[in-house]
Amino acid sequence: MDDAVTMAPAVEDSPLVVAGRTFNSRLIIGTGKYKSYAQNAEALKASGAEMITVAVRRVNLSNPDEPRLVDFISPDDYTYLPNTAGCFTGEDAVRTLRLAREAGGWNLVKLEVLSDPKHLYPEMSETLRAAEMLIKDGFDVMVYCSDDPVYAKKLEEAGCCAIMPLGAPIGSGLGIQNPVNIRLIIEQTKVPVIVDAGVGTASDAAVGMELGCDGILMNTAIAEAKDPVRMASAMKHAVIAGREAYLAGRMPKKRYADPSSPLSGLI
Amino acid sequence: MLDLTINGEVRQVEAGLSVAGLLEMLGLQAKKVAVERNLEIVAKSAYDATQLETGDRIEIVAFVGGG
Protein backbone atom coordinates (compact mmCIF):
# COMPACT_ATOMS: atom_id res chain seq x y z
CA MET A 1 0.00 0.00 0.00
CA ASP A 2 1.28 3.49 -0.82
CA ASP A 3 1.57 5.83 2.11
CA ALA A 4 0.45 9.46 2.08
CA VAL A 5 3.84 10.73 0.94
CA THR A 6 3.63 8.90 -2.40
CA MET A 7 -0.02 9.72 -3.08
CA ALA A 8 -0.65 11.46 -6.39
CA PRO A 9 -2.42 14.81 -6.13
CA ALA A 10 -6.16 14.73 -6.86
CA VAL A 11 -7.14 15.54 -10.43
CA GLU A 12 -8.15 19.19 -10.54
CA ASP A 13 -11.52 19.72 -12.13
CA SER A 14 -12.14 22.60 -14.49
CA PRO A 15 -15.42 24.51 -14.48
CA LEU A 16 -18.17 23.99 -17.05
CA VAL A 17 -17.69 26.39 -19.96
CA VAL A 18 -20.57 26.90 -22.41
CA ALA A 19 -20.05 29.29 -25.31
CA GLY A 20 -17.37 31.16 -23.37
CA ARG A 21 -19.43 31.45 -20.18
CA THR A 22 -18.05 29.76 -17.06
CA PHE A 23 -20.20 27.93 -14.52
CA ASN A 24 -19.01 26.41 -11.27
CA SER A 25 -22.15 24.28 -10.92
CA ARG A 26 -22.77 21.49 -13.40
CA LEU A 27 -26.46 21.39 -12.54
CA ILE A 28 -28.99 23.36 -14.56
CA ILE A 29 -32.56 23.46 -13.31
CA GLY A 30 -35.90 24.31 -14.84
CA THR A 31 -38.43 26.71 -13.41
CA GLY A 32 -41.67 24.95 -14.38
CA LYS A 33 -44.19 23.02 -12.26
CA TYR A 34 -43.29 24.56 -8.88
CA LYS A 35 -46.08 25.49 -6.48
CA SER A 36 -44.89 29.10 -6.55
CA TYR A 37 -42.00 31.21 -7.77
CA ALA A 38 -41.00 31.62 -4.12
CA GLN A 39 -40.60 27.84 -3.71
CA ASN A 40 -38.75 27.79 -7.04
CA ALA A 41 -36.31 30.42 -5.81
CA GLU A 42 -35.68 28.49 -2.60
CA ALA A 43 -35.05 25.24 -4.50
CA LEU A 44 -32.70 27.06 -6.86
CA LYS A 45 -30.67 28.33 -3.94
CA ALA A 46 -30.47 24.82 -2.46
CA SER A 47 -29.43 23.34 -5.82
CA GLY A 48 -26.44 25.62 -6.22
CA ALA A 49 -27.32 25.90 -9.93
CA GLU A 50 -26.25 29.06 -11.76
CA MET A 51 -28.29 28.56 -14.92
CA ILE A 52 -32.07 28.14 -15.21
CA THR A 53 -34.33 27.37 -18.12
CA VAL A 54 -37.30 29.69 -18.63
CA ALA A 55 -40.20 29.84 -21.07
CA VAL A 56 -41.55 32.82 -23.03
CA ARG A 57 -45.31 33.32 -22.89
CA ARG A 58 -47.94 35.98 -23.53
CA VAL A 59 -48.57 38.22 -20.52
CA ASN A 60 -52.04 38.03 -19.01
CA LEU A 61 -53.61 41.35 -20.02
CA SER A 62 -56.42 41.00 -17.47
CA ASN A 63 -53.92 40.66 -14.60
CA PRO A 64 -50.90 42.87 -15.28
CA ASP A 65 -49.79 42.56 -11.64
CA GLU A 66 -49.48 38.75 -11.61
CA PRO A 67 -46.23 37.48 -10.04
CA ARG A 68 -43.27 37.61 -12.44
CA LEU A 69 -40.42 35.12 -12.42
CA VAL A 70 -37.86 37.94 -12.65
CA ASP A 71 -39.10 39.34 -9.33
CA PHE A 72 -38.24 36.08 -7.53
CA ILE A 73 -35.17 34.94 -9.47
CA SER A 74 -33.12 37.87 -10.69
CA PRO A 75 -31.51 37.63 -14.12
CA ASP A 76 -28.66 39.61 -12.55
CA ASP A 77 -27.89 36.69 -10.24
CA TYR A 78 -28.59 33.70 -12.52
CA THR A 79 -28.11 32.95 -16.20
CA TYR A 80 -31.51 32.73 -17.87
CA LEU A 81 -31.70 30.11 -20.58
CA PRO A 82 -34.85 30.84 -22.60
CA ASN A 83 -36.37 27.74 -24.16
CA THR A 84 -38.56 27.06 -27.16
CA ALA A 85 -40.97 24.69 -25.42
CA GLY A 86 -44.18 24.48 -27.40
CA CYS A 87 -42.49 25.24 -30.73
CA PHE A 88 -42.90 22.71 -33.52
CA THR A 89 -41.05 24.48 -36.37
CA GLY A 90 -37.79 26.33 -36.85
CA GLU A 91 -39.71 29.52 -37.59
CA ASP A 92 -41.61 29.29 -34.27
CA ALA A 93 -38.35 28.72 -32.41
CA VAL A 94 -36.60 31.69 -34.02
CA ARG A 95 -39.60 33.96 -33.38
CA THR A 96 -39.80 32.91 -29.70
CA LEU A 97 -36.10 33.33 -29.03
CA ARG A 98 -35.89 36.69 -30.76
CA LEU A 99 -38.54 37.87 -28.31
CA ALA A 100 -36.56 36.33 -25.45
CA ARG A 101 -33.42 38.09 -26.63
CA GLU A 102 -35.25 41.42 -26.67
CA ALA A 103 -36.86 40.78 -23.26
CA GLY A 104 -33.61 39.85 -21.58
CA GLY A 105 -30.80 40.80 -23.88
CA TRP A 106 -29.24 37.32 -23.91
CA ASN A 107 -28.32 35.12 -26.82
CA LEU A 108 -27.60 31.86 -24.94
CA VAL A 109 -30.70 29.72 -25.49
CA LYS A 110 -32.11 26.21 -25.20
CA LEU A 111 -33.57 24.91 -28.41
CA GLU A 112 -36.20 22.20 -28.22
CA VAL A 113 -38.43 21.32 -31.15
CA LEU A 114 -40.82 18.62 -30.05
CA SER A 115 -43.01 16.15 -31.87
CA ASP A 116 -45.71 13.95 -30.34
CA PRO A 117 -47.05 15.20 -26.95
CA LYS A 118 -47.25 11.58 -25.77
CA HIS A 119 -43.49 11.12 -25.62
CA LEU A 120 -42.23 14.69 -26.25
CA TYR A 121 -39.39 13.28 -28.29
CA PRO A 122 -37.48 15.94 -30.22
CA GLU A 123 -38.25 16.25 -33.94
CA MET A 124 -34.66 15.93 -35.01
CA SER A 125 -34.74 17.07 -38.65
CA GLU A 126 -36.63 20.21 -37.63
CA THR A 127 -34.36 20.67 -34.60
CA LEU A 128 -31.32 20.68 -36.89
CA ARG A 129 -32.96 23.14 -39.27
CA ALA A 130 -33.96 25.41 -36.36
CA ALA A 131 -30.43 25.23 -34.91
CA GLU A 132 -28.96 26.36 -38.22
CA MET A 133 -31.43 29.26 -38.41
CA LEU A 134 -30.71 30.38 -34.83
CA ILE A 135 -26.93 30.16 -35.18
CA LYS A 136 -27.13 32.23 -38.36
CA ASP A 137 -29.14 34.78 -36.36
CA GLY A 138 -26.38 35.07 -33.75
CA PHE A 139 -27.68 32.79 -31.01
CA ASP A 140 -25.55 30.43 -28.90
CA VAL A 141 -27.64 27.28 -29.08
CA MET A 142 -27.76 24.58 -26.41
CA VAL A 143 -29.80 21.89 -28.09
CA TYR A 144 -32.17 19.33 -26.63
CA CYS A 145 -31.86 16.21 -28.76
CA SER A 146 -32.47 12.49 -28.95
CA ASP A 147 -29.71 10.17 -27.76
CA ASP A 148 -28.79 9.40 -31.37
CA PRO A 149 -25.02 9.93 -31.84
CA VAL A 150 -25.49 10.55 -35.58
CA TYR A 151 -27.82 13.51 -35.11
CA ALA A 152 -25.77 14.71 -32.12
CA LYS A 153 -22.78 14.95 -34.47
CA LYS A 154 -24.79 16.89 -37.06
CA LEU A 155 -25.90 19.38 -34.41
CA GLU A 156 -22.33 19.85 -33.21
CA GLU A 157 -21.14 20.38 -36.77
CA ALA A 158 -23.92 22.94 -37.28
CA GLY A 159 -22.32 24.95 -34.45
CA CYS A 160 -24.40 24.19 -31.35
CA CYS A 161 -22.55 25.16 -28.16
CA ALA A 162 -23.88 22.26 -26.06
CA ILE A 163 -25.40 18.91 -26.98
CA MET A 164 -28.21 17.93 -24.62
CA PRO A 165 -29.48 14.39 -25.20
CA LEU A 166 -32.47 13.13 -23.25
CA GLY A 167 -31.92 10.43 -20.63
CA ALA A 168 -35.60 9.43 -20.83
CA PRO A 169 -38.79 11.23 -21.95
CA ILE A 170 -39.35 14.72 -20.48
CA GLY A 171 -41.03 14.56 -17.07
CA SER A 172 -40.90 10.75 -16.92
CA GLY A 173 -38.33 10.40 -14.15
CA LEU A 174 -37.25 7.03 -15.58
CA GLY A 175 -33.52 7.68 -15.34
CA ILE A 176 -30.94 7.21 -18.09
CA GLN A 177 -32.37 4.56 -20.39
CA ASN A 178 -29.55 4.26 -22.89
CA PRO A 179 -26.18 4.82 -21.23
CA VAL A 180 -24.44 3.23 -24.22
CA ASN A 181 -25.65 6.00 -26.54
CA ILE A 182 -24.98 8.76 -24.00
CA ARG A 183 -21.41 7.51 -23.67
CA LEU A 184 -20.97 7.39 -27.45
CA ILE A 185 -22.15 11.00 -27.67
CA ILE A 186 -19.77 12.06 -24.88
CA GLU A 187 -16.82 10.37 -26.59
CA GLN A 188 -17.36 12.03 -29.96
CA THR A 189 -18.40 15.53 -28.81
CA LYS A 190 -16.00 18.45 -28.25
CA VAL A 191 -18.58 20.88 -26.81
CA PRO A 192 -20.25 20.16 -23.45
CA VAL A 193 -22.71 17.26 -23.29
CA ILE A 194 -25.53 17.79 -20.82
CA VAL A 195 -28.17 15.15 -20.09
CA ASP A 196 -31.47 16.97 -20.39
CA ALA A 197 -34.65 15.24 -19.23
CA GLY A 198 -35.38 11.88 -17.69
CA VAL A 199 -33.70 12.20 -14.31
CA GLY A 200 -36.01 11.07 -11.51
CA THR A 201 -33.86 11.02 -8.41
CA ALA A 202 -30.34 11.73 -7.20
CA SER A 203 -28.82 8.42 -8.31
CA ASP A 204 -29.97 9.09 -11.91
CA ALA A 205 -28.05 12.36 -11.91
CA ALA A 206 -24.98 10.63 -10.50
CA VAL A 207 -25.20 7.96 -13.23
CA GLY A 208 -25.18 10.66 -15.91
CA MET A 209 -22.18 12.38 -14.42
CA GLU A 210 -20.32 9.07 -13.91
CA LEU A 211 -20.72 8.43 -17.64
CA GLY A 212 -18.70 11.61 -18.18
CA CYS A 213 -21.41 14.14 -18.96
CA ASP A 214 -20.46 17.76 -18.42
CA GLY A 215 -23.71 18.58 -16.67
CA ILE A 216 -27.31 17.62 -15.98
CA LEU A 217 -30.45 19.63 -16.73
CA MET A 218 -33.61 18.74 -14.80
CA ASN A 219 -36.95 20.23 -13.85
CA THR A 220 -39.64 17.75 -12.78
CA ALA A 221 -37.38 15.63 -10.56
CA ILE A 222 -37.02 18.63 -8.24
CA ALA A 223 -40.34 20.41 -8.77
CA GLU A 224 -42.49 17.31 -8.25
CA ALA A 225 -40.56 15.86 -5.31
CA LYS A 226 -42.52 15.92 -2.05
CA ASP A 227 -39.94 18.36 -0.73
CA PRO A 228 -38.49 20.19 -3.75
CA VAL A 229 -35.97 22.21 -1.74
CA ARG A 230 -34.52 19.09 -0.16
CA MET A 231 -34.43 17.28 -3.52
CA ALA A 232 -32.64 20.28 -5.02
CA SER A 233 -29.96 19.86 -2.38
CA ALA A 234 -29.80 16.10 -3.09
CA MET A 235 -29.29 16.82 -6.80
CA LYS A 236 -26.50 19.27 -6.05
CA HIS A 237 -24.65 16.58 -4.13
CA ALA A 238 -25.44 13.86 -6.69
CA VAL A 239 -23.98 15.89 -9.54
CA ILE A 240 -20.85 16.64 -7.50
CA ALA A 241 -20.54 12.98 -6.42
CA GLY A 242 -21.02 11.69 -9.96
CA ARG A 243 -18.45 14.12 -11.33
CA GLU A 244 -15.92 13.22 -8.64
CA ALA A 245 -16.46 9.49 -9.27
CA TYR A 246 -15.95 10.05 -13.01
CA LEU A 247 -12.71 11.96 -12.40
CA ALA A 248 -11.56 9.40 -9.81
CA GLY A 249 -12.02 6.54 -12.28
CA ARG A 250 -14.07 3.63 -11.00
CA MET A 251 -12.65 0.18 -10.13
CA PRO A 252 -13.06 -2.53 -12.74
CA LYS A 253 -16.13 -4.73 -12.45
CA LYS A 254 -15.29 -8.35 -11.55
CA ARG A 255 -17.27 -11.54 -11.72
CA TYR A 256 -16.17 -12.88 -8.34
CA ALA A 257 -15.49 -11.63 -4.83
CA ASP A 258 -12.13 -10.19 -3.83
CA PRO A 259 -11.58 -9.87 -0.06
CA SER A 260 -10.70 -6.46 1.31
CA SER A 261 -8.93 -7.80 4.42
CA PRO A 262 -5.53 -9.54 4.08
CA LEU A 263 -5.62 -13.33 3.90
CA SER A 264 -2.21 -13.67 5.58
CA GLY A 265 -1.67 -13.38 9.34
CA LEU A 266 -4.97 -14.98 10.27
CA ILE A 267 -5.03 -16.21 13.88
CA MET B 1 -59.64 54.95 -32.55
CA LEU B 2 -57.35 52.11 -33.57
CA ASP B 3 -58.33 48.47 -33.75
CA LEU B 4 -55.49 46.30 -32.43
CA THR B 5 -55.14 42.61 -31.75
CA ILE B 6 -53.11 42.28 -28.57
CA ASN B 7 -52.14 38.75 -27.52
CA GLY B 8 -55.02 37.46 -29.59
CA GLU B 9 -57.61 39.84 -28.05
CA VAL B 10 -59.21 42.58 -30.15
CA ARG B 11 -58.92 45.96 -28.41
CA GLN B 12 -59.67 49.55 -29.33
CA VAL B 13 -57.21 52.25 -28.31
CA GLU B 14 -56.83 55.98 -28.88
CA ALA B 15 -55.19 57.02 -32.15
CA GLY B 16 -51.61 58.21 -31.81
CA LEU B 17 -50.70 55.70 -29.10
CA SER B 18 -47.08 54.51 -29.02
CA VAL B 19 -45.85 51.11 -27.83
CA ALA B 20 -44.65 52.80 -24.63
CA GLY B 21 -48.10 54.34 -24.19
CA LEU B 22 -49.79 50.99 -24.77
CA LEU B 23 -47.65 49.27 -22.12
CA GLU B 24 -48.43 52.06 -19.67
CA MET B 25 -52.15 51.79 -20.44
CA LEU B 26 -52.01 48.03 -19.83
CA GLY B 27 -50.09 48.50 -16.56
CA LEU B 28 -47.03 46.59 -17.78
CA GLN B 29 -43.42 47.46 -16.97
CA ALA B 30 -41.46 47.85 -20.18
CA LYS B 31 -38.29 46.30 -18.77
CA LYS B 32 -40.06 43.03 -17.90
CA VAL B 33 -41.67 42.31 -21.28
CA ALA B 34 -40.86 42.06 -24.96
CA VAL B 35 -43.08 43.32 -27.75
CA GLU B 36 -43.62 42.07 -31.27
CA ARG B 37 -45.57 44.13 -33.79
CA ASN B 38 -46.77 42.39 -36.94
CA LEU B 39 -44.17 39.64 -36.42
CA GLU B 40 -41.32 42.17 -36.05
CA ILE B 41 -39.54 42.70 -32.71
CA VAL B 42 -39.90 46.23 -31.36
CA ALA B 43 -36.61 47.17 -29.70
CA LYS B 44 -37.02 48.58 -26.19
CA SER B 45 -35.25 51.73 -27.36
CA ALA B 46 -37.98 52.22 -29.97
CA TYR B 47 -41.03 51.95 -27.66
CA ASP B 48 -41.55 55.72 -27.49
CA ALA B 49 -41.07 56.34 -31.19
CA THR B 50 -43.15 53.42 -32.48
CA GLN B 51 -46.68 54.59 -33.27
CA LEU B 52 -49.40 51.96 -33.45
CA GLU B 53 -51.61 51.69 -36.50
CA THR B 54 -55.03 50.20 -36.93
CA GLY B 55 -54.91 46.48 -37.73
CA ASP B 56 -51.62 45.99 -35.87
CA ARG B 57 -51.11 42.56 -34.36
CA ILE B 58 -49.23 42.97 -31.12
CA GLU B 59 -47.68 40.26 -28.96
CA ILE B 60 -46.49 41.11 -25.47
CA VAL B 61 -44.54 38.36 -23.73
CA ALA B 62 -42.64 37.78 -20.50
CA PHE B 63 -40.54 35.03 -18.96
CA VAL B 64 -42.43 32.37 -17.06
CA GLY B 65 -41.35 29.14 -15.41
CA GLY B 66 -40.38 26.41 -17.86
CA GLY B 67 -38.16 23.37 -18.28
Short description:
Chain A has 267 residues and is an alpha/beta fold. In chain A, 36% of the residues lie in helices and 16% in strands. In chain A, strand 3 (27-29), helix 1 (37-47) and strand 4 (51-58) form a beta-alpha-beta unit.
The backbone outline of chain A, from C-alpha atoms, is globular
Q: Walk across the major sheet of chain B and give the strand order.
A: 2-1-5-3-4
Order of strands across the main sheet of chain A: 5-4-3-10-9
Distance between the termini of chain A: 22 Å
Biggest interface reads: A-B, 36 and 26 residues
Radius of gyration of chain B: 12 Å
**Major sheet of chain A: size, sense and barrel closure?**
5 strands, parallel
Q: What is the helix content of chain B?
A: 10-25%
Beta strand count of chain A: 10
Residue ranges of chain A: pLDDT <50 for 5 or more in a row? none
Could you state the oligomeric state of the chains shown?
Answer: heterodimer
Q: Estimate what percentage of residues of chain B fall within beta strands.
A: 35-45%
How many DSSP helices of chain A? Answer: 9
Question: How large is the share of residues in beta strands of chain A?
Answer: 15-25%
The computed structural class of chain B is: mainly beta
Number of strands of chain B: 5
Describe the structure.
The complex is a heterodimer of chains A (267) and B (67). With 267 residues, chain A is an alpha/beta fold. Helix content of chain A is 36%, strand content 16%. Chain A contains 9 helices and 10 strands. The longest helix of chain A is centred in the last third of the chain and has 21 residues, at 228-248. Chain B has 1 helix and 5 strands. Chain B has a 5-stranded mixed β-sheet with strand order 2-1-5-3-4, with no helix packed on it. In chain B, a hairpin with a 2-residue loop joins β1 (2-6) and β2. The chains are: A alpha/beta (267), B mainly beta (67). Chain A binds chain B through residues 30-34, 37, 40, 53-59, 61, 64-65, 68-70, 80, 82-83, 85, 95, 98-100, 102-104, 170-171, 197, 219-220, and chain B through 6-9, 26-28, 32-36, 39, 41-44, 59-67. β4 of chain A pairs antiparallel with β5 (57-65) of chain B, so a sheet runs across the interface.
